[in-house]
């Protein structure tokens, strides 16, 4: 069973890493544009890939909702904004740190 869980709060554009109910880390994120909003709900991390190529920065963690994930970015100025096609963008150093802490099967709650 995964040690941690993740909450992505779309309104404050932050990703929280929790151990039980205790926030261990908080990271700023970029989220989906109004027309391609990040979907709210309960998901799990189903795959992890370093150096995925393209606009995904240095790491990709795919969610159980097809086509969506938590990933790095080649455009750090997009963090904190509503700019993506629905994925959760992180600074490359933050997604690298997060990827070392979470496992496949980690629960991800995305909330408004």
UniProtKB/TrEMBL annotation:
The lineage of its organism: Bacteria, Bacillati, Bacillota, Bacilli, Bacillales. The active site is at 71 (proton donor/acceptor), 87 (nucleophile). This is L,D-transpeptidase. Gene3D superfamilies: L,D-transpeptidase catalytic domain-like. Keywords: Acyltransferase, Cell shape, Cell wall biogenesis/degradation, Glycosyltransferase, Hydrolase, Peptidoglycan synthesis, Transferase. The keyword Zinc-finger does not apply. Residues 4-111 form the L,D-TPase catalytic domain. InterPro entries: LD-transpeptidase (IPR050979), LD_TPept_cat_dom (IPR005490), Transpep_catalytic_dom (IPR038063). Pfam families: YkuD. It is an enzyme of class 2 (transferase). CDD domains: YkuD_like (cd16913). GO terms for molecular function: acyltransferase activity. Its EC number is 2.3.2.-. Belongs to the YkuD family. Pathway: Cell wall biogenesis; peptidoglycan biosynthesis.
